[in-house]
Amino acid sequence: MSCDQCYPLPQVYLVDGGGGTQRSGQSPSLVPCWSFPPAQERVRSHGKSRGFMGVSPCLAIVLMLLFLLVFAALGFEAYQIHNMQIALRDVTEGEPVTEFNAAQKQIGVHEPEINEEEKEKRTAAHVMGRIEKDDFRKTLRWEPRIGVAFVSGGVSYRVEDGALQVNKSGLYHIYARVELIFRHCSVTSSFVHNVFVRRTGYSSPHTLMEAHREGFCSHQPGHAWTTESYLGSTLTLQKNDRVYVNVSHPAFLSHSHYGNFFGLYEI
After folding, report:
1. 20 to 30 A Cα–Cα from 19, which one of 8, 139, 244, 265?
2. By C-alpha distance, which of 138, 114, 252, 173 is closest to 164?
3. Where are the transmembrane segments (predicted)?
């Protein structure tokens, strides 16, 4: 038999299917041989092309650099957070605790506590309507001590004429409300409500605010109808000024302390 011996592969022989003995003088039939590279060399070459664990060296370097970049960013952020915590601790330790930075439990708007002495010093007054039965005067009289009414600080109530007198010059907010009941209301019913001041050295009063109300009744004449008027403004008053409230129909005022009130306070 003859076969190419360049590769260490096993030789293949043909055996007579009949089981007979072949003659020595007759050459056996030859079978073609195919050559393959050795398995060891194929594995070695495949390993060289794929690199470590099947990853190319360039890709491994890129991944390593990305990981290093991520870790560096995380470390920098942690360093910055640590510095901010130190700075915040220094600020809170060095700043004194006041009512503005102290923790407070609030329901609605926070109102600082005022002791009775400070309340007495405040220039403010709130008087409530007096119920008149016989004497109806256009310049109204008030109750300075009933319900929530009070007078304090640099203002006083004049019982003789119903005025609030201020004892020092300044900027004041003045307000007044009246409530009227027209028992036989008609489309022509109307009334005038004003606030005026009397000043030392002036003979005539000076009007501060005024409202003229009409057309408030329903289209069914003869029925009772309730209406109201509110005036409010911030004005400059001088020392010893006396402020009054006037209404054109005092007999129609409702008998409600809380429906009629008058007051002022210094700003």
Report:
1. 8
2. 173
3. 52-76
Domain count along the chain: 1
The SS3 of residue 252 is: helix
Q: What is the pTM (predicted TM-score) of this model?
A: 0.54
In a domain, 166, yes or no: yes
How far apart CA 112 and CA 115 sit, in angstroms, is 10
Q: What is the pLDDT of residues 103-112, one digit of tens each?
A: 554 444 445 5
Q: pLDDT tier at 101 (50, 70, 90 boundaries)?
A: low
CB burial of residue 164 (10 Å; 0-12, 13-18, 19+): buried
CATH of the domain at 192: 2.60.120.40
- Pairing verdict, β 206-214 and 261-266: unpaired
Look at residue 148 and tell me if it is in a domain: yes
Measured at the CA of 240, the angle between CA 236 and CA 241, to 5 degrees, comes to 45
